[in-house]
Amino acid sequence: MVRFCPWYPLASAGEHAPGEPGILQLRLGSGLCEYPRGKSAMVHYAHAPDVRAAALALGALHPGPDLVCRHLIEIEEATDLGTFHAKLRDEFVRRFGTPPTFPPKKS
């Protein structure tokens, strides 16, 4: 089983994201990005040794209220986080024709 927490504003990641290894997802709070095979609100996947530090760094690169994020809160213990991250990105590329775009370019 894999489960992510609810979405929260990237600007408040310091209050929500754990200071431990994990997976972080970022998407637009509103609107969509244009990709070669469709539109998506998703703009970034990250595998980080410290999810909070990664989220804060991403927030510093793109301040403002328009990005939301969530982090992995449940995954089978035997799952390798690097492999899971690669699977998420690969599935996005298969569906949309390119990796997610960060910083985002709204359509």
Mean pLDDT: 92
Distance between the termini: 34 Å
CATH topology: the name is GIY-YIG endonuclease
| Quaternary organisation | single chain
Which shape, going by the Cα principal axes?
globular
Architecture, CATH level 2? 3-Layer(aba) Sandwich
Low-pLDDT windows of residues: none
**Number of continuous helical runs:** 3
Report the sheet-strand fraction: 25-35%
Number of strands: 7
Structure classification: alpha+beta
Helix content: 25-40%
For the biggest sheet, the summary is: 5 strands, antiparallel
**Series of secondary-structure elements, N-terminal to C-terminal:** EEHEEEEHEH
CATH class: Alpha Beta
Radius of gyration computed on alpha carbons: 13 Å
**In total, how many domains does the architecture comprise?**
1
Write up this protein.
With 107 residues, the chain is of the alpha+beta class. It has one domain: GIY-YIG endonuclease, CATH 3.40.1440. The chain is built from 3 helices and 7 strands; from the N terminus they run ββαββββαβα. Strands 1, 2, 3, 6 and 7 form a 5-stranded antiparallel β-sheet that branches. A two-stranded antiparallel ribbon has the order 4-5. β4 (33-35) and β5 form a beta hairpin. It is globular and about 35 Å long. The termini are far apart. The relative contact order is 0.30.
